[in-house]
């Protein structure tokens, strides 16, 4: 059984890799089983037929009264037809970057990770039925504002499901973010020893200062100002202990505007003046 790389197999000359992507999936054979390598998180809105999805440690069966939000990764996907019908499914892909942007925009706190579940089951209702009908790959490839429309559709379904399922859906969305170093932590930790101000680091994270402070405190269990100051002062101490540099050589790089403020902060933390090292 060959491995299908999704959504890459759906790209053509008009569909280059992007952060949000819609695909209308149809088939007429009785049963199709696929090995799937899913490189983006994906909504599967099933309209006609049945679906069985096998993951590493569980499986899930759905019909057209339900939809699935599937986490990127490897799984087995079996599609079954209703009698004398064409299997019809709309697939709505989104990147981790778009998910992080959405969570930063609409949620206040970083939620704790729950058990690593590869899917979230969505019970279809009238609103979801109308939303699914509005999705068409043709609309989003032949429209001059297709990218903007896709972002709006993505935010629409996410906001509706947040309202419908509350914290359980929000927890699940946070579990979709890679558990290696998050983009947020990567930006913060790559600027630990820079002379950037909090406002500037928040800007690099695409956040307001207040949102940045909330995210930072949830990630590091400490206010960002104190955390960064401690890290930078420790770096300054290490540089001074090397014996080649003086306080006047390093205070700007450590994030202080003048030598006096640096010396006071250094002495408050370590109990000695930087000139005494």
UniProtKB/TrEMBL annotation:
Classification via Pfam families:
ExsA_N, HTH_18
Q: Which key words tag this protein in UniProt?
A: DNA-binding, Transcription, Transcription regulation
Q: Which GO molecular function annotation, any one, does this entry have?
A: DNA-binding transcription factor activity
Q: Please report the stretch or stretches of sequence annotated as the HTH araC/xylS-type domain.
A: 182-277
InterPro entries recorded for this chain? ExsA-like_N, Homeodomain-like_sf, HTH_AraC
Name recorded for this polypeptide = Helix-turn-helix transcriptional regulator
